[in-house]
Amino acid sequence: MLDQLEVAAEPTRRRLMHLLTSGEQTVNMLAAHFSASRSAISQHLRVLTDAGLVTARKDGRFRYYRLDPQGLAQLRTLFDSFWIDELDRLVADATEEAASRGDR
């Protein structure tokens, strides 16, 4: 699976995810919000789908995209653990710095 943090960090894909918070939409509906081609938006949606952040269902000749709650939960867990790890490192560095200066 693709790195969900990396996939979601790209500005166009982040905006697509934001647009999908209002509900299911076709690629044409989504593409109307961008200057990029429909094909380019389809490629971004494919990456989001491959990363497990978006799902699609086909109805006739249309494909409807929506956010995948499970994928978003995984992304949230990754994001939370990223910040916890970073904060733990910051505290450790500050503690080490204080100890090296004799502060307590």
Automatic annotation (TrEMBL):
PROSITE patterns: HTH_ARSR_2. InterPro entries: ArsR-like_HTH, HTH_ArsR_DNA-bd_dom, HTH_MetalResp_TranReg, WH-like_DNA-bd_sf, WH_DNA-bd_sf. The keyword DNA-binding applies. Gene3D superfamilies: Winged helix-like DNA-binding domain superfamily/Winged helix DNA-binding domain. It comes from the Bacteria. Pfam families: HTH_5 (PF01022). PANTHER family: TRANSCRIPTIONAL REGULATOR, ARSR FAMILY (PTHR33154), TRANSCRIPTIONAL REPRESSOR SDPR (PTHR33154:SF33). NCBIfam families: HTH_metalloreg. This is Metalloregulator ArsR/SmtB family transcription factor.
